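tool=predict chain=A
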Amino acid sequence: MKQNRPLLAFFLLAIALVRASAFGEQAANTANLSPPASPTKQFTILQSVTGSRPLSNGMEIRSGAAVMQITALRDDVLRVRVGPQGTLPEDASWAVLPQSRSASVTVSTEDDSASVGFRTAALHVRVERATMRLRISDRNGAVVQEDSSSRPVEFHGSAFRVYKAMPADEHYFGLGDKPGPLDRREHAYHLWNTDSYAFQESTDPIYKAIPFFLTSNGGITAGVLFDNTWRTSFDFGKESPDAYSFGSEGGPLDYYILYGPDAKHVLSTYAWLTGPPPLPPLWSFGFQQSRFTYHPESDVRAIAERLRADKIPADAIYLDIDFQDHHRPFTVDQIQFKHFPQMIADLKKQNLHVVAITDLHIADLPNAQYAPYDSGIAGTTS
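tool=predict ok
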């Protein structure tokens, strides 16, 4: 087997080059989809409390023109929202369930000369008046999360960043589809859905964006869900050894803090917040025929016929990118798959399900009658 490794490496490189060429039209100019930068970016930092008022489920704080709202959805779930110009971001989400986002518990106000805050049955929430520093602790006084002592929340125009204190023995796990070590400490990442075929350990970003991570320190685990669909970034001590941070080029500053104290409880709470996955269908436990890739339509039909002729109890056939028109998501190649709907119907009669790939991106194709791109751009400019 060892003597074939150079040939295998050459073969994989050839595939990578072919696919890179095929995807060039999608990946070359994705940055152009972001809104144009403002010629002057207003710099805003939340550096002291200039006003506050209690809420039945939390508190609202002013720092100059900026406003911060911290609310308790449950005794162990907090939501933090910030608006740099005095208006909170839209109360909406593509990820958090409406019934979870609107949930609330009654809190007890805890204000003194040095801080404003409140408590739930599980947590103490405190914001220092002089520094606007947020500190969350459990009922035993153990710190769950606190802002950095040297870097307040800051806005650069529509972009912003949140800095948190990073204890020497705290560890970080999550962000979903990422290469690299399981513990994210001393590493930095971007979330921006990108077709990254043949990615390496150092490739970033890659396919999916999951802005959720766990912090673990001294037996206490917490979760952070950063609810923002723009291009986001996370730095777990790579820039500074005593702080981790997260931020975005734009969109809302809206994040949730999920208290454990154990990881199992945090993940259960995450499912409560975003919704549990549906139960898989029974057929998905059967044999599924898949490879890269089946085309044209005649090959797919031939495979189905062979599976049934040989009495192989298969339940599904997968279609990779070659069923698409020039590998563009949400399209069908009308030349190689002339009768796509009929093929699906015929396979169903053979008790075969079809699983078709959906890449998590849109091809950058203006003026090409590509509906996903055109409708998306129309939405951003309307």
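DSSP finds seven helices and 22 strands in the chain. The chain has two domains: 43-274, 282-381.
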